[in-house]
Write a structure and sequence with these properties.
Blueprint lengths: L2 H16 L1 H4 L3 E4 L2 E5 L4 E3 L1 E4 L10 E7 L6 E3 L14 E3 L10 E3 L10 E8 L7 E6 L6 E5 L6 E4 L3 E2 L4 E9 L7 E4 L7 E10 L2 E10 L8 E8 L5 E8 L1 E2 L5 H27 L1 H9 L4 H17 L3 H19 L16 H6 L7 H9 L1
Parallel strand pairs: 2-11, 13-20
Antiparallel strand pairs: 1-4, 3-8, 5-6, 5-9, 7-8, 9-10, 12-14, 14-17, 15-18, 16-17, 18-19
């Protein structure tokens, strides 16, 4: 026999020794430890393997007991054999024919901490219930950590919401009772709020319930408190809240509107000026071709008004003074009766003509002239 053949035979023998099919070994896969809320429930995942052929459920009997007292059952097919403390609170969720030994315990007490182990018995036939094999998986037991207070929901969301854009908040709790999922509710309930429920397996023996809130926040929602409340099986409740901060979208109306108004006003004024210029263009040209510009005429008019208000100028006053003085001198020498030719004209010629006593008439002047 060659070396390769000997090696192959050795591997087959080793597999046969270690295989439960050939050795007749039964094994169970049970979660070792779970956090359980008092007054709530717990589901203990459990599965087993056996060396027999596919066994019907009718030939299998499953039970759970305390690890230190195998006769103290917390679950049994015969309800009378269950400890009074657990009677009516336990049941198998799995089917033994499918190698499923999952256990549910409701209304958990603070002293229901275990450890608890699974045991299976195999009947001879479906009619003969006398057992052939019995297996207690005392090395694969579960222990509970009792929680007096319900876990608070965990919120996941962005720091700031933006006005008019969808905003999502996720509320989640970890629990150990998938048969009675915690109920998650929100304080913000409006027509535009969308809530999505998600339930998924997290770790071996733990489940996660999620409630996803989707809203489109407005300015009025700024600084609003949003609360997520978790209600567990048994009535325990806990809540977590946060303050919603809404960031306003950029609004340039305070810049756009005044700018548009200013531009519109400027355009209207410019159009008005153009129309006025076209309408009075001929008149403006005539005024510009006239005697001097409008400004010169206005300047002369302004000087005339000032001279009328302020009185005669200095030169006019000097002329008036000289004339008045000459007239006075003439009146002083009227008694001499000088020659008409040497006598200057009277300051008031029309008065002299009317004064017949002091002045001679024009015929006398002619007479003197002829002389």
């Amino acid at each position: 026999m060659d070396k390769e053949t000997r090696m192959m035979i050795f591997c087959l023998l080793l597999a046969a020794i270690s295989s439960p099919v050939f050795t007749g070994e039964w094994k169970a896969n049970v979660v070792k430890e779970l956090d359980v809320l008092v007054t709530s429930c717990v589901v203990v995942p459990c599965s087993f393997t056996h060396p027999k052929e596919n066994l019907p459920t009718s030939r299998l009997r499953g039970m759970w007991h305390r690890s230190t007292h195998r006769d103290q059952f917390i679950y049994h097919e015969d309800n009378t054999r269950i400890s009074e403390n657990f009677r009516g609170r336990t049941q198998l969720l799995g089917h033994l024919g499918q190698d499923n030994c999952t256990l549910e315990i409701t209304d958990m007490k603070d002293h229901d901490n275990g450890p608890f182990c699974f045991r299976i018995e195999l009947a001879r036939t479906e009619t003969d219930l006398s057992t052939v094999d019995k297996f207690s998986f005392v090395e694969d037991c579960v222990t509970f950590n009792m929680l007096p207070d319900p876990p608070k929901p965990e919120l996941t969301h962005a720091q700031t919401a933006i006005q008019g854009r969808p905003f999502t908040v996720t509320c989640s709790v970890i629990h150990t009772c998938p048969s009675h999922v915690p109920k998650l509710t929100w304080s913000m309930v409006t027509t535009d709020v969308v809530v999505t429920e998600v339930h998924k397996k997290n770790l071996f023996g733990y489940w996660e319930a999620q409630s996803i809130l989707t809203i489109t926040p407005e300015e009025k929602n700024d600084h609003t408190e949003v609360t997520c409340t978790a209600k567990y099986n048994g009535g325990s409740m806990s809540s977590t809240k946060f303050t919603l901060y809404v960031k306003r979208t950029e609004n340039y109306n305070h810049i756009i509107i005044p700018t548009v108004v200013a531009i519109g006003t400027a355009v209207i004024f410019a159009v008005f000026c153009i129309l006025m210029v076209k309408k009075y263009k001929r008149r403006i040209a005539e005024l510009q071709r006239g005697d001097g510009s409008i400004w010169n005429r206005m300047s002369r008019l302004s000087r005339r008004i000032r001279s009328d208000v302020s009185g005669p100028s200095r030169s006019d006053q000097r002329t008036k003074n000289v004339n008045s003085k000459s007239c006075a001198d003439q009146k002083a020498f009227k008694a001499r009766f000088p020659s008409p030719k040497s006598q200057p004209k009277s300051c008031n010629y029309r008065e002299d003509l009317d004064d017949g006593d002091d002045y001679i008439n024009t015929e006398d002047l002619n007479i003197y002239g002829n002389m």
